[in-house]
């Protein structure tokens, strides 16, 4: 039997460091919940007075901020002090319409029953015959209730399949009956853009058929797109980026986040207390250390968020003047290198964080944009490349659509980037653009 000695390097994170990293990744709502828990458990932590009453300088900053957003031509959203983005659930929205409808009570109750069977995509996920037997309701009543539900907004709600969903939308738009026929019998041909074939079947001109098909393509196969699958949520920004004079500034959204400080009053009371047991002294020493570290961790979190926001202002300067299309390529690795921190620190910091800008609310992650290298050593964003591919295809001749090789050459001529045909095909598919063979008339 031989004994072997192996040396290994193993990194063990202390409990304090783990807590610090955990706090760094929390959103404001999650941090507020943790603060409330710590205030209850640690006697050496106490809540500070209200942010707006204490910090007059920041109060004035909010005044500048509010005025800046009111003047902005890029957003119609509320002032930052009142701002929240509400995402209502589909079922909640449908139930409100039931309450304000003029149907009989019997139909209303049945509609409410049907709403409970709606899927996240607004489709009705139940067989009406089976449901009528299960609930002891007549099939006539069930049919009337479905008709009532399908009259609600968004158009297409209560559809039992894709064809019915599209037909409901066509009827609401009062588009020709030929469009319904295409949806019911020629969806596969429409998907492959076989306009001449559909035209021949319906005895219509190719131009008229294309016009009808384009109207169908504008329809929404998922009526619940603008609704949340969860109950009502509120997304509040963690920071605001606002323009004052000719420069941009960062301010934290502390209105909904409790401010905590070390309780020296409690510490002074303990110092004057005689005959404390050794066990109690040890407990209070642990709690004082934990309180100070907890406050320090929160301060470090705020400092890191501010550094990242300020870096974004510098790197994405054109975005704040021209909008989303002007975002430059940026990776977390690039930022980590510039800020002399580990890339995981950047990842944790931007996780679940939101920033309010003159263009509205954005996740901090959305400012990290992939890019491709040009021959001159610069980077061009993938979103800009996709934007040009989409533009070129929209302007192409239907008789001579652009193939991926031609798009590749155009990209090289325009941006001086070399992108493979396979990658271009991926970009097309991501934008739901068919291949040139399918696009060809």
Structure explained in plain terms:
The protein is α+β, with helices and mostly antiparallel strands. The protein folds into 3 domains: 15-58 and 236-367, no CATH class; 90-217, no CATH class; 373-439, no CATH class. The protein is built from 22 helices and 10 strands. It has helices at 15-24, 28-41, 51-54, 56-71, 90-99, 105-115, 128-135, 139-149, 162-173, 177-185, 187-191, 195-202, 206-217, 264-271, 278-315, 319-322, 332-339, 343-350, 382-394, 404-415, 421-430, 436-439; strands at residues 45-47, 85-87, 233-235, 239-244, 247-252, 260-262, 354-357, 360-363, 371-373, 379-381. Strands 5-4-7-8 form a 4-stranded mixed beta sheet, with helices on both faces. A hairpin with a 5-residue loop joins β9 and β10 (379-381). α1 packs parallel to α15, α9 (162-173) runs antiparallel to α10 and α12 (195-202) packs across α13 (206-217). The protein is flat. The protein starts with 14 loop residues before the first helix and ends with a helix.
């Amino acid at each position: 039997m031989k004994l072997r000695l192996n040396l290994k390097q193993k990194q063990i994170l202390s409990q304090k460091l783990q807590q610090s990293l955990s706090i760094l990744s929390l959103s404001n709502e999650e941090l507020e919940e943790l603060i409330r828990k710590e205030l209850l458990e640690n006697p050496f932590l106490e809540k500070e007075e209200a942010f707006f009453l204490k910090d007059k300088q920041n109060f004035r900053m909010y005044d500048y901020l509010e005025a800046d957003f009111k003047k902005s031509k890029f957003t119609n959203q509320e002032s930052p002090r009142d701002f929240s983005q509400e995402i209502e659930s589909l079922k909640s929205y449908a139930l409100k319409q039931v309450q304000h409808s003029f149907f009989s009570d019997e139909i209303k109750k049945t509609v409410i029953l049907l709403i409970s069977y709606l899927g996240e995509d607004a489709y009705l996920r139940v067989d009406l015959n089976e449901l009528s037997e299960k609930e002891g309701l007549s099939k006539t009543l069930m049919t009337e209730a479905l008709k009532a539900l399908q009259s609600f907004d968004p158009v297409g709600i209560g559809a039992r399949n894709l064809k019915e969903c599209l037909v409901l939308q066509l009827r609401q738009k009062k588009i020709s009956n030929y469009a319904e026929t295409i949806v019911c019998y020629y969806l596969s041909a429409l998907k492959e853009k076989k306009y001449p074939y559909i035209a021949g079947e319906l005895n219509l001109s190719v131009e008229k058929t294309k016009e009808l098909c384009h109207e169908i393509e504008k329809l929404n196969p998922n009526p619940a797109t603008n609704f949340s699958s969860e109950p009502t949520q509120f997304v509040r920004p963690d920071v605001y980026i606002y323009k004052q004079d000719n420069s941009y500034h960062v301010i934290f959204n502390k209105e909904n986040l409790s401010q905590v400080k070390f309780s020296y009053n409690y510490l002074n009371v303990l110092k004057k207390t005689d005959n404390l047991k050794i066990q109690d002294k040890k407990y209070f020493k642990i709690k004082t250390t934990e309180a100070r570290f907890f406050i320090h961790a929160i301060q470090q979190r705020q400092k890191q968020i501010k550094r990242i926001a300020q870096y974004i202002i510098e790197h994405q300067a054109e975005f704040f003047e021209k909008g989303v299309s002007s975002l430059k390529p940026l990776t977390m690795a690039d930022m980590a290198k510039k800020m002399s921190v580990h890339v995981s620190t950047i990842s944790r910091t931007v996780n679940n964080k939101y920033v309010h800008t003159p263009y509205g609310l954005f996740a901090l992650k959305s400012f990290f944009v992939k890019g491709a290298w040009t021959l001159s050593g610069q980077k061009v964003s993938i979103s800009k490349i996709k934007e040009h591919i989409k533009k070129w295809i929209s302007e192409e001749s239907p008789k001579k659509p652009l193939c991926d090789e031609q798009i590749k050459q155009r990209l090289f001529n325009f941006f001086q980037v070399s992108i493979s045909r396979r990658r271009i095909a991926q970009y097309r598919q991501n934008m739901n653009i068919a291949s040139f063979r399918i696009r060809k008339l």
